[in-house]
Write a structure and sequence with these properties.
The chain is α/β, with parallel strands linked by helices. The protein folds into 2 domains: 2-215 and 275-348, ABC transporter type 1, transmembrane domain (ABC transporter transmembrane region fold, Up-down Bundle); 368-605, P-loop containing nucleotide triphosphate hydrolases (Rossmann fold). Helices cover 63% and strands 10% of the residues. The chain has helices spanning 2-8, 15-37, 39-47, 65-83, 85-135, 138-143, 146-165, 167-188, 190-210, 214-237, 239-244, 248-274, 276-300, 306-348, 407-414, 437-442, 458-462, 471-480, 484-487, 507-521, 537-551, 586-592, 595-605, and strands at residues 368-377, 382-392, 396-401, 422-427, 430-431, 444-448, 525-529, 555-559, 571-576, 579-584. Strands 6-7-8-3-9-10 form a 6-stranded mixed sheet, with helices on both faces. A 4-stranded antiparallel sheet has the order 2-1-4-5, covered by helices on one side. Strand 4 (422-427) and strand 5 (430-431) form a beta hairpin. The protein starts with a helix and ends with a helix.
């Protein structure tokens, strides 16, 4: 129940709805019980079992309420029925109908109030999950399947609502139904009530035995669902490669294997869940059978009135429905535990890249970025080893080298997507771990090799950093990025939707939109992570021209694959396996006839 308690923490803002629901459920249970009790005088009117004459009783206190009610019913039936039998029957039926109407009105308003609580809690859980997902470090998602994260935020969260939140009403409503019904039954006959009191714990024990393995089976179902959602997400992202390598059959086999495992797990789960209803119903009917036998004997020997016994049976049978609901709820808790555990795993994940208590703000980049003695590893092997570099304000520093030499890692560490293991990175003398993340990233704009665009309009993608940006600002950024020429030709201009990942555009067009996004942010530090490496010659020329405009009067860190794009850099750093092997301007490095010169020669021959 620990997970249930944690989920309930989300219900605190909606406790007024919970209180209103409890009040409605009290009336629901009360009117439900009274509606069955009210059947007693109806039965007596129909069967006229009372032959004696009675006088109208007087109230003598709560302790003698049972005698008062019996005497009042007997007086009413003998006095009124003898005068007008049909009128008395109509009056009794009207009373029963009114009680059932009040019961159902209370039930509706109970559902009305709990709806706001359930949906409010669900909304807040989803919002908390999304907030956590966008704030977790990049390293978290390099270890997790995206499909599994999506499954936790969707189907698992929905399972929490279906199982946990649906029993919020049951844990008050159904026990109250049982409590009020038992109270009325005890007033009628304590001997018959003992059978019902024995039934509840016995059936609960039997049902708990059936549901013992539900949590594990439910966890298997949800984990497998996350796996095949990951496969689906990867398939959609890599469809060209799958088709190009004729790998449809192989991917289908992987997906079918996953759905077969899901099928097996789901069957076991549903079959075990399905036992709850028939087992609880059979146990209930078994008790009703015993009650009929025992109560029938009491009617035969005159220990209990036949009309009262029929109403008692109605109350006893009425307990079966809430008892079944409670047994199903116990299954729901076990199933919901697995879903809640997966949801809470994300919410409980510690974000180690966060602001310190006394973090400072860098209002405007003024001096330099200094990297000293930097050593970093993603897993076991060091990617950077004792790396040091100073980047003065206004300068352009290019990082070159073979793949895996640590170039992109520098960008990841400067932006604090990952935290430094050994060594320091400072901006204007402040260790970036002591700077507020928002303040640090406000100083930087990033253009990556893969143009990351969203399924929205050009304007929304360009103005990602400033949702209040005007159309004029967006257009100006597009012009600087050499993108206005093609954007102006789109059906709705900057308000045209560019499709999933911007796939309605060419590679060069997508990259220029990414540059326009960096232009509009107008950050003093620009990080270009192989921004032209995947482009054709014409697109590269347009993008390079746009980048040169953007880099003017900015501090730029350029990670380059095509060396022709960085010849004007103030400083070129040649890297190999996490170390600096050469450093200088283009002319200086060419004159050395070393690693950089060889790279230039190789590209010129290509």
């Amino acid at each position: 129940m620990n997970y249930f308690k944690e989920i309930l923490q989300f219900a605190k803002p909606y406790r007024k709805y919970g209180v209103a629901n409890i009040i409605c459920n009290i009336f629901y249970a009360l009117f439900g019980t009274l509606s069955f009790v009210a059947l007693i005088p109806v039965m007596k009117v129909l069967f006229q079992t009372t032959k004696e004459q009675y006088v109208e009783p007087t109230w003598q206190g709560i302790t003698r309420s049972k005698e008062y009610l019996e005497s009042y019913v007997n007086w009413y039936v003998t006095d009124v029925v003898n005068e007008n039998q049909e009128q008395a029957l109509i009056a009794m039926i009207a009373l029963v109908l009114i009680l059932f109407l009040l019961k159902n009105l209370a039930g509706y308003f109970g559902t009305y109030f709990i709806t706001f609580l359930r949906n409010g809690v669900m909304r807040d859980i989803r919002n908390a999950l999304y907030h956590k997902i966008v704030n977790l470090p990049i390293s978290y998602f390099s270890e997790k399947r995206k499909g599994d994260v999506i499954a936790r935020a969707t189907s698992d969260a929905q399972e929490v609502q279906t199982s946990f939140l649906s029993i919020l009403e049951l844990i008050v409503k159904e026990p109250l139904n049982i409590l009020f019904a038992l109270a009325a039954m005890l007033l009628i006959s304590y001997q018959l009530t003992i059978f019902v009191l024995v039934f509840i714990p016995v059936s609960g024990f039997i049902i708990s035995l059936i549901g013992k393995r539900l949590k594990k089976q439910s966890d298997n179902v949800q984990r497998e669902q996350g796996f095949f959602l990951s496969l689906l997400e990867e398939t959609l992202g890599g469809l060209k490669v799958i088709k190009g390598f004729n790998a449809e059959g192989r991917m289908e086999d992987s997906f079918k294997n996953s759905t077969q495992r899901y099928y097996n797990f789901a069957n076991k789960l549903e079959l075990r869940k399905g036992l709850a209803s028939p087992v609880s119903e059979f146990l209930g009917i078994l008790v009703i059978g015993v009650l009929l036998w025992f109560g029938g004997r009491m009617v035969f020997n005159g220990s209990i009135d036949g009309a009262i016994f029929i109403s008692f049976m109605g109350l006893a049978y009425g307990i079966l429905t809430p008892a079944k609901a409670i047994s199903k709820a116990s299954y729901g808790v076990k199933q919901g535990n697995a879903a809640a555990e997966r949801v809470l795993q994300i919410l409980h994940t510690e974000n180690h890249i966060k602001d310190k208590e006394n973090a400072v703000e860098v209002s405007a980049f003024a001096k330099a970025i200094d990297i000293q003695g930097l050593t970093f590893a993603y897993e076991d092997e060091d990617v950077l080893k004792d790396f040091s570099l100073s980047i003065p304000k206004g300068s352009t520093v290019a990082l070159v080298g073979q793949s895996g030499s640590g170039k992109s890692t520098i960008a990841n560490l400067v932006t604090r997507f990952y935290d430094v293991h050994d060594g320091t990175i400072t901006i204007d003398g402040h260790n970036i771990k002591d700077v507020k993340l928002k303040s640090l990233r406000d100083q930087m704009a990033i253009v990556t090799q893969d143009s990351i665009l969203f399924n929205d309009t050009v304007a929304v993608n360009v103005a990602l950093s400033d949702k209040s940006a005007s159309d004029e600002q967006v257009i100006e950024a597009l012009k600087i990025a050499n993108a206005w020429e093609f954007v102006s030709q789109l059906p709705k201009g900057i308000h045209t939707n560019i499709g999933d990942s911007g796939n309605k555009l060419s590679g060069g067009q997508k990259q220029r939109l990414s540059i326009a996004r960096a232009v509009l942010k107008n950050a003093p530090i620009l990080i270009l992570d192989e921004a032209t490496s995947a482009l054709d010659t014409e697109s590269e020329r347009l993008v390079q021209d746009a980048l040169e405009k953007v880099m003017q009067n900015r501090t730029s860190i350029v990670i380059a694959h095509r060396l022709s794009t960085i010849q004007k850099a103030d400083q070129i750093i040649v890297m190999n396996r996490g170390n600096i092997v050469e450093q200088g301007t283009h002319e200086e490095l060419i004159s050395l006839q070393g690693v950089y010169s060889n790279l230039v020669n190789m590209q010129s021959l290509a």
